[in-house]
Amino acid sequence: DVTHFGYQTVRAEEKAGKVAEVFHSVAAKYDIMNDLMSFGIHRLWKRFTVEMSGVRPGQQVLDIAGGTGDLARAFHREVGPTGRVVLADINSSMLAVGRDKLLDSGVAGQIEFVQANAECLPFAPGSFDLITIAFGLRNVTDKDAALRSMYQSLKPGGRLLVLEFSKPVLEPLSKIYDTYSFTLLPLMGKLVANDSESYRYLAESIRMHPDQETLKGMMERAGFERCDYHNLTGGIVALHRGFKL
Ligand code: SAM
Q: Which residues bind S-adenosyl-L-methionine (predicted)?
């Protein structure tokens, strides 16, 4: 079985190791790079995700590929002391940085940290009211398996939100964005994190990721119903939503 790691064709069993290298390498600089590369706009994309989640006090939330914990912290505020927030990620370095950050925010004790692969989530079926995956799905080798596993882990009536880079809807925006991604991004990666390779992977993996309609179809095939999406920043990012009814 072959798959892609950015623009490289690799054997499916090689991909997770390569993705792991990227996130071990970027973990320490992850938050600052996010702010720099997106001009802080990732905060707005995440805020919109929380708004669209419809989450209420007392609910159970899983943020898979949660990394350094931006969404987990926001959801913790929404669900309150009677709710539950689980931050799961496959990468120990990202989890460690996330845990430190949430400790500093004083909420780490109220959030569960789990090292897990999105393809085979270690939770009982029907555990969560809401599952989110932000900028994570494109790194997952078997995306269909991951979507099925998320479907299983949701309660009936629960929803999945997938926040991910997508396809810009306007041609001129697309051109500027391409230039930015393949020249400035790796350069910033080199200057700030001394790692241009990881940021080239970032640009390439975004180009290889399924577009809005394709991802919606994948969610439907995994069992999700009433699937829709919102383009953000001209489709540079899209927020997909689907329900387990
Ligand atoms: N969600 C965070 C955010 O929005 O800032 C972090 C996103 S970061 C770009 C992608 C994360 O996906 C990394 O922390 C990485 O370790 C994680 N990841 C990659 N493959 C994964 C998998 N198969 N299962 C779970 N997490 C995975």
A: 68, 89, 117-118
